[in-house]
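Before anything else, study the sequence and fold tokens given here and see whether the fold suits the sequence. Record follows:
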Amino acid sequence: MTLRPFAGRPTSRRRLLGGSAAALGAAALSTTLPTAQAAPLRRQPPPTGNYRIDLHAHFLPPDYRASLLEHGHLTIGGYPTPQWSPEEALGFMDYYGIQAQALSVSDPGVSYLRGPEANDMARYCNTYAADLFRAHPTRFGAFAVLPMPDIAASITEAIFALDTLRLDGVVLLTAYDGVYLGDPRFEPLMIALNQRNAFVFVHPAAIPADAKPELPLPDFLEEFTFDTTRAATLMMVTGLTQRYPNIRFQLAHAGGTVPFLSHRISVASQTVLGDLWPDNLPKPSVLDIKNQISRFYYDTALSGSPAAMAATLAVTSRDHIVFGSDWPFSAATLPQTGSHDPAPGLSEIFDAEQRMDVEHHNPLRQLPRLADAVSG
């Protein structure tokens, strides 16, 4: 099947969704969104014990962190590149009642390298992760980093990481070299992941300085959420999430702004954008986009607030919400002092049983290898 971006133009960070935003801004169509399933706002006691399964947690193996610093990555998304060790991770987990973490490499992945260097660094990180969860089988899982944007090398590494190392899934950035997930050039990788029923964690990437406004704010504060929205939207409107139903996609930080913008996204094909829709792609309907939005998984990292969770519950069911801490990048907001609850805002939306679903049962349903290790 031949796919092409809208109107034959290359899909870049600015073009498709920048133009779409203008069209959507002119739309004034009325469609009813699902009713929020949140409980009344009131503080409720959380469960107790080490029960949480953390699906948004990062690691920086020593050689990888050294390489980042050597190549000038002193900050990640504007946050100083943190220290990390298994011992520090376990201490954090024990303090905050986290039974296990599914570790992933954050932005920039290994995309700051190219060729054999990128391949070797991805293999090093993935092998390090596999060794770590073999040493601590009930405490760690991992999502494989791939040597993107090299598609052929990434397919090779994904097959090795999932089939041989038995990692729990794959982490992909929202975009590589300005090209977002959903672009046709990623199709071969998606085919391989779909064949393996892969769980894919979509993590935001920093936007190049020449492609964003000059604001005195770090990327992780706002830009990361916007980039997740751009990637998720493109994945839906190009039909990627329809073509590969066996891939389960987790969107970081409660989907960025996807829940808030769900109505605007859903009416895209009914605006001027609909006239530019490629003939070889199905034009999504309002109900279709709603359905696709509801099928994403949304993590609570830096989003465990009543406002964020109420918006998320308005577009999906509770079983599609999973716990995330974003540690060690959240170390400043999650110091190991005071409360042992890493997301107290969740108790203003969920009771103890519902929090157990979000923080334990929902994550383990998606990661069968880790679920077996934890229960065994």
In short: The longest helix spans residues 115-135. The chain has 14 helices and twelve strands. The chain has a mean pLDDT of 86. Residues 95 and 337 are 9 Å apart (CA to CA).
